[in-house]
Amino acid sequence: MDNIWNNYPEIKQELAEVLDLMKKNVKCKDKKIENSIIELIESGGKLLRPAFVLMGAKFGDNDGQKSIPTAAVIEMLHMASLVHDDVIDDSKLRRGQETIQSKYGKDYAVYIGDYLFCVCFKILATHESLEAIKMDSRAMSKICMGEVNQLNARFSMKLSVKDYLSRISGKTAELFSISLYLGAAECKAEEKVSRELGNIGHNLGMAFQIIDDILDYEGSDKSIKKSATNDLRQGIYTIPLIYAYRNNKSAFKDILGKNYYSEDDIAQIIKLVEENKGIEMAKELAEKYMNKCFKGIDRLPENKYKDVLREIANWLLQRTY
């Protein structure tokens, strides 16, 4: 669990209960699968999405019996998508540790991701309302389509800001949005407040992914705790490159025509992105979404977790990993 939660003891305690519920539900006869998932649960992720569920609940009746299972499902959906992403991207690092696919092989990683989805359904069937099940299913569909759109766009020279934003809306922002919305809605918050929280989550998720994509150009494997420049190696063109290409297409014409990038190619692309203001413009775009997020937070009813949400948003904007 990230040290950020030491500043918020109530959230930290509830997150510990979320992790316990996850561990309880991943028990299975195949101890390799079970132990692999427990290792992933204990790998020190930020736990942002389950924390947002718990924060959203604070704007309703704050019933932990409702919010903790919801938070567990949201985090396990996220974990399953990460395991499958690492298979597709052939990633070696995740959260500063060797990925499941690197450690056990791609076939095993696919089954582990599938099993995590099964556990989600089990918890949903036991604890969740029909409306929550519908929304979680919709979120899973949007996440999947965001990943498919990303796969279809690999090494494509048709670089569009609009297409990128649509992709990350499904890939990342949807789960941020539904986390805050469901946390509030399942705990009987006013619909207006639940929807505002959903919008806050969307804008925060968009900014979070943009910053993540910036770090892929600025960070190292050690600093960001995953394989730096991995998206670029896979032909996934994110917003820093899209902006830089739009600013100076001729500079990228020859190098982006390839379907494989050497280390020298990667270094040259990163240099061109920086020289053509790709990173600078991407940071400006992230700040636009963060400003929308903060305006939404300002509209929330007075509640100490309104300030917590603002603090977490600020932390995410300034993060370096």
Per CATH, the architecture is: Orthogonal Bundle
Q: Could you report the average pLDDT, rounded to the nearest whole number? A: 85
Radius of gyration: 19 Å
Distance between the termini: 15 Å
The biggest beta sheet is recorded as: 2 strands, antiparallel
The domain count comes to: 1
CATH superfamily: Farnesyl Diphosphate Synthase
CATH class: Mainly Alpha
CATH topology grouping: Farnesyl Diphosphate Synthase
How is the largest sheet built, in terms of strand order? Answer: 1-2
What's the SSE pattern? HHHHEEHHHHHHHHHHHH
Structural class: mainly alpha
Helix fraction by DSSP (H/I, runs of at least 4): over 70%
Strand segment count: 2
Count helical runs.
16
Strand content: under 5%
The outline comes out as: globular
Weakly predicted, low-confidence segments: 220-226
